[in-house]
Specification:
By secondary structure, the chain is α/β, with parallel strands linked by helices. The protein is built from nine helices and eight strands. The chain has two domains: 204 residues; 50 residues. It is 48% helix and 18% strand. A six-stranded mixed beta sheet has the order 1-2-3-4-8-5. A hairpin with a 6-residue loop joins strand 6 and strand 7. Helix 1 packs across helix 7. 24% of the residues are buried.
Length: 274
């Protein structure tokens, strides 16, 4: 009993230490901070260069689905005072084609916010703001706007979709760059961004905020364990059904007690994507 209790306390302490390392660039902290629309409003005012911008509502972890049923979780969906719908994404690792990710997220958001049969002129304006630790275009700018340009005339045209890329790598002294420091540096706070700095300080340094973050991390860890257990049970049940259909009853009996043998059978008989 004492050993288990000690192990539990050790695990909680480890989670608390990991929680202290989180910053707004991390999905977990960003989505928690984005529950406050004032936070989203403050950062969007800076990034979109609009001090009068208003956020009417913010929805962290917005779930969108395409017509085929594939879902995507947006870090934060915001409705702006001018009617625009905004997806804010944060990303630490340069590990995939993020431009296509932005394109996909914008399409999902547009589709989910448009009623069937809606006239094209009523399709909502959508803006995707992609915040990253790395300079995605390697152009040495902290802020990039991607426009649609007619190649032959070099005229900028607008179809209601806007892409804005922000990164924390380039330090150019701009307000955007200073905001990004608050996003990625443990000790960075800035009076220019009181809502962002205050929210970050709360979740990183106060007992109340740390408790919130730890509870979220513990819940996620539990969900991942449960998902892993259910996935394992599904694989075992599928393997057992295959063995029965193949009349391999001796293998079925041995696999019930020999986990190494069971794993060999899974490699042999189960689909690669399972």
């Amino acid at each position: 009993m004492n050993t288990n209790k000690g192990s539990g306390m050790s695990n909680k302490a480890k989670i608390r230490e990991e929680a202290k390392k989180l910053n707004p660039i991390d999905d977990l902290m960003f989505r928690t901070m984005a529950e406050d629309k004032a936070f989203c409003e403050e950062i969007l005012r800076v990034i979109l260069s609009d001090p009068a911008l208003t956020v009417l509502e913010s929805t962290p972890q917005y779930a969108g689905t395409n017509p085929q049923g594939r879902s995507v979780i947006l870090d934060a969906k915001c409705v702006l005072g001018d009617g625009r719908k905004t997806d804010i994404e944060v990303q630490k690792a340069n590990d995939t084609d993020h431009q296509r990710r932005v394109r996909y997220n914008g399409a999902i958001l547009t589709t989910n916010l448009t009623d069937p049969g809606e006239k094209f002129e009523n399709i909502p304006d959508v803006c995707v703001v992609f915040i990253s630790r790395f300079d995605i275009f390697e152009g040495n700018h902290s802020l990039y706007h991607v426009d649609r340009i007619i190649r032959e005339t070099e005229k900028v045209v607008d179809n209601g979709f806007e892409e804005v890329y922000v990164n924390a790598k380039v330090k150019d002294g701009s307000d955007v760059s200073e905001l990004m420091e608050v996003f990625v540096d443990d000790a960075a706070y800035n009076s220019k961004f009181p809502v962002t700095s205050g929210s970050k300080r709360r979740y990183k340094t106060t007992e109340e905020g740390q408790q919130v973050m730890c509870e979220i991390m513990e819940r996620i860890a539990k969900e991942e364990r449960n998902e892993g257990r259910l996935e394992g049970e599904t694989r075992i049940n599928t393997l057992n059904a295959i063995l029965i259909n193949l009349n391999r009853f001796d293998d079925l009996k041995r696999a019930a007690t020999d986990k190494d043998f069971q794993m060999q059978l899974m490699i042999e008989l189960l689909p690669e994507d399972m």
